[in-house]
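WARN  no MSA supplied for this record, continuing single-sequence
INFO  ligand: arginine
INFO  echoing inputs
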Amino acid sequence: MKNEMWSGRFEGFSSKLLEEFNASLNVDKDLFKEDIKGSLAHAQMLCECEILSKDEFKAIEKGLKEIQEEIENKNFIFDIRDEDIHMAIEKRLSALIGAEIGGKLHTARSRNDQVATDFKLFAKSSNLKIQSLLKELIKTILSLAKEHKTSIMPSFTHLQHAQVVSFSFYILAYGFMFLRDIKRLKASYDLANYSPLGACALAGTSYKTNRKLSATLLSFKEPMPNAMDAVSDRDFALDLLYDIAVIFTHTSRLCEELILFSSSEFSFISISDSFSTGSSIMPQKKNPDVCELIRGKTGRVYGNLISLLTTMKALPLAYNKDMQEDKEGLFDSVNTALASLEILNAMLKELKINKENMLKACQKGHLLATDLADYLVRKKQLPFRQAHFIVGKIVAKAEKEGIDICEIKNLKDYDENFDEEANSLLSFENSLNLKQSEGSSSIKSVEKQIELLENFLKSS
Ligand code: ARG
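INFO  complex generated
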């Protein structure tokens, strides 16, 4: 078929293979709202600059709104021969209001700045949606943290028992990861807040346009200062892909721990039936599929980032068709993030914490050993290395006796450096509250951390 858009230059017909290979309509039709919004702002700007008459602008506005309704009501016929959403809408506009006026919309614009604008608008609104889901997640973490300030559990390094902490302290660690994720998204949003619209093909235009106006109409802070950069830049997509990749690093770690902690080996937590699945053969099974899926989806989210980085690498300025490959991955990462954060939050709301099992687990692994060493440093002014050695000996002795050091009745019997008072160290609660440093696991510090997160939510 002959392509109407560039029929002036071409004598021959497009190959059917080319039409299909070249088209991005199946993917970028999801940008129809952004495209119409961008066109409305562009047309209004052209009108204010007297490049379009008021009547022409009114006709274009009416036509674009009609097209939006057609698409929303599924009455719009998508034809792959239109190549992409920008051409599909422009063609339909001319059919609706006549090519005489419809054909004027593309004055002082190119698809290069148009697509960059649409895609940026999508990235900005997706960024905000992800931020608000992360805020919901932090709220759920806060309510778990408030409820479990005294729910004692072992912490781990190398997945070996380390020290006593509370469930509250543990889950707050994730709260602060998600807080950083929100801050990272905000930084990306600010960087993306400059409008490419009006950059045209790459060099700007000979019309006296007002890019500041179209930027403001689209809620951008300002126009991008260099037209060539404006049409070549996909940093905003990379930034969002990276932000989502980091979010999934965090959710995959949380999900991994929920899987471990809900296994019969740990039994620290129980995932609600409504977020678990069964087995087709083993009647007893209750599987943490949601956590596994979120953990698994991390792979595709990382892949989408690497894929666009690779597409953009070494591309000559300005627009190259390679860049049409930018959308699928970002759409996928955004959808994956929205769905995963929503279900993770719902699942966490129904999470059951098995306090008794966590407490029982603290009785293994000599979790109090560091507290004993610290005591010797405090009371006897021993160098920490020497205290470490003494407590190491006590641990070795307890191991031989087949007990945990928390079961020792009188520490003095194990080493004469300890006195009567030292026996108060043999309590998990004391261990928790002995911590004095900022950000520690003590109840006082945990309360401060809760306050910090609450204030962040209030102010953002
Ligand atoms: N469908 C294209 C894309 O998504 C729109 C930009 C086309 N520009 C061009 N010069 N062919 O990248």
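Residues 24, 28, 84, 111-112, 115, 319, 321, 323-324 surround arginine (CB under 6 Å).
INFO  checksum written, moving to next record
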